[in-house]
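All the exercises in this workshop are built on plain-text protein records. Sequence and backbone structure share a record, each on its own labelled line. The structure tokens are whole numbers drawn from a learned vocabulary of backbone shapes. The record below serves as our worked example for the rest of this section.
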Amino acid sequence: MTTQIVTHPLARRHGVGLVLALALFLPTLASAQNREPGVQITDNGDRLKIEIGGMAFTEYHYGKYGDEPVTRPFFYPVMGPGGAPMTRNAPMQPAPDEATDHPHHRALWYAHGDINGQDFWSESPTAGRTVHDGFLLIESGREKGVIRSKNKLVAKDGTIVGTDERTMTIYNRASDRMIDFEITVHASHGDLTFGDTKEGSMAIRLPATMRLKGKVGQGHIVNSAGDRDGTTWGKRAAWCDYYGPVNGKTVGVAIFDHPGNPRHPTWWHVRDYGLFAANPFGIHDFEKLEDKHKGDLKVPAGGSITFRYRFYFHSGDTKEGAVADHYSEYSH
């Protein structure tokens, strides 16, 4: 097991084109054979490169993407079973048949659209930013790799609204892929309120062919309550699964809402155009209520709140991927 504690500034990452980026990201067979088995995490400056068994899995971008500072840390690309790309390329890279709407939908990320009245979800001129403030732990291992980081929630005027700490665990799996994402948000700079809005929170944006609708979309959505496809939006469920074809094979991603999370089972902001998010705050939107503050959640000054999720990337549809069984294991 290799452990790296990061305490010093890191070098800048230079922007590269898609072809060169893939060439750098995908390991050769020879280099893969020379790597220690398990989950390997390498800090390349502004991003962490994550491999499973010597093969590319994802990168965690925390500083810059190309020459531009990131608005929030995010994982991109994410490779699922058989190396299937599980996230949209836009806005990071152009790709055929991909929509370029919602440029703030950056692959896999956490953010919310109203924290103390500040928008941390979009990339509008008035939006705030989630600023990486250092790593507490970067650990590679045979069974899993662990990333622990801390971040600042910085409003447009530079005011720090709050802080968070994240623990992201990547597992060494033979075929499927799993990421556990735990986030603790601290009311470190006074009272902190998550506002009632559908714009959030634990999210992934899927590739074009997995979409429920669209020019090439052939996907489907299923949740633990038995809702399917378009009826899943705004519904409460312990888990939700979005599956469809990628490179001619059916793959899917399920998000699990931990039973210890506040307001479990959560509501799902899952769209037919490929946005897929767990959101425990947007109650008035999802339940179509007149009270626009019904879903507000306040954390008093000095306090904190923790949410835990699992991303399960699987082959086949919901049944073939045994999503319900995997959630049962997770919940216990």
Notes: The two ends are 27 Å apart (CA to CA).
